[in-house]
Amino acid sequence: SQTIHQWPATLVQPVGSPLSLECTVEGTSNPNLYWYRQAAGRGLQLLFYSVGIGQISSEVPQNLSASRPQDRQFILSSKKLLLSDSGFYLCAWRRTVPSYNEQFFGPGTRLTVL
Amino acid sequence: DQQVKQNSPSLSVQEGRISILNCDYTNSMFDYFLWYKKYPAEGPTFLISISSIKDKNEDGRFTVFLNKSAKHLSLHIVPSQPGDSAVYFCAAYSGYSTLTFGKGTMLLVSP
């Protein structure tokens, strides 16, 4: 069976500090991978997605970046955090076949920037 | 521009009754729709989906209806249970890679 892991579960960081959130998927190969953010009182905003190693698509311009160094690893980074980066960050994956199918979400990381 | 709209931020229903969660969309290219359920501090979990070639899909207590001409879909939960209390997100695919989510509706089912 497939599982998706995210860490850390919670993080408190000062403004201007760097960020690295990691997501790994087990039990599948060549998944599509996604980073979302849920800000307080808002829906799920797609930040980045990847269809393969080294392939990153950015949906929203911001001070965050993403990388996919391995098939089942997806990393969200920032060089300098802003207060507005606070939120609940979710990683998700889906199979590439069939064409339409559900995305499976990880447990999330609660980021608070002070 | 919000392409998937859930206009009711919250809904309260009594246990045993029907819960109806609504979703409207503006992008006519959307052709596959999903509903997710989310508890606080957890990732969303997939509930049910529907292709644009259908108008109804049923899975146990959950039924999704799609009205393409009105660009409207709804999720029916019958009977509602207290454990159904959560935030429900409507989402849509256009193309195969990315989902567009609504802002969610918080459902509260009271005993």
Report on this model:
The complex is a heterodimer of chains A (114) and B (111). Chain A contains no helices and eleven strands. Chain A has strands at residues 3-7, 10-13, 19-26, 32-38, 44-52, 55-58, 64-70, 73-78, 87-94, 104-105, 109-113. The model of chain A has no long low-confidence stretch (mean pLDDT 92). Chain B is mostly beta strands and 111 residues long. Helices cover 0% and strands 55% of the residues of chain B. In chain B, the strands form two sheets. In chain B, strands 2, 4, 5, 9, 10 and 11 form a six-stranded mixed beta sheet that branches. Chain B has a five-stranded antiparallel beta sheet with strand order 1-3-8-7-6, with no helix packed on it. Chain B is globular. Chain B starts with a strand and ends with a strand. The chains are: A mainly beta (114), B mainly beta (111). Chain A binds chain B through residues 32, 34, 36, 42-46, 49, 51, 57, 59, 88, 90, 92, 99-100, 102-108, 110, and chain B through 6, 31-32, 34, 36, 41-46, 49, 51, 89, 91, 93, 96-104.
State the gist of this model:
Chain A is mainly β. Chain A contains no helices and 11 strands.
- The share of residues in helices of chain A is under 10%
Shape of chain A: globular
Number of E strands of chain A:
11
Largest sheet of chain B: 6 strands, mixed
The topology string of helices and strands of chain B comes to: EEEEEEEEEEE
Number of strands of chain B: 11
Radius of gyration of chain B: 13 Å
Query: Which blocks of ≥5 consecutive residues of chain B have pLDDT under 50?
Result: none
Mean pLDDT of chain A: 92
User: Which range does the strand content of chain A fall in?
Assistant: over 45%
Low-confidence segments of chain A, given as residue ranges, are none
Mean model confidence by pLDDT of chain B:
94
What is the N-to-C order of secondary-structure elements of chain A (H for helix, E for strand)? EEEEEEEEEEE
- How large is the share of residues in beta strands of chain B? over 45%
Most extensive interface, chain pair and sizes = A-B, 25 and 25 residues
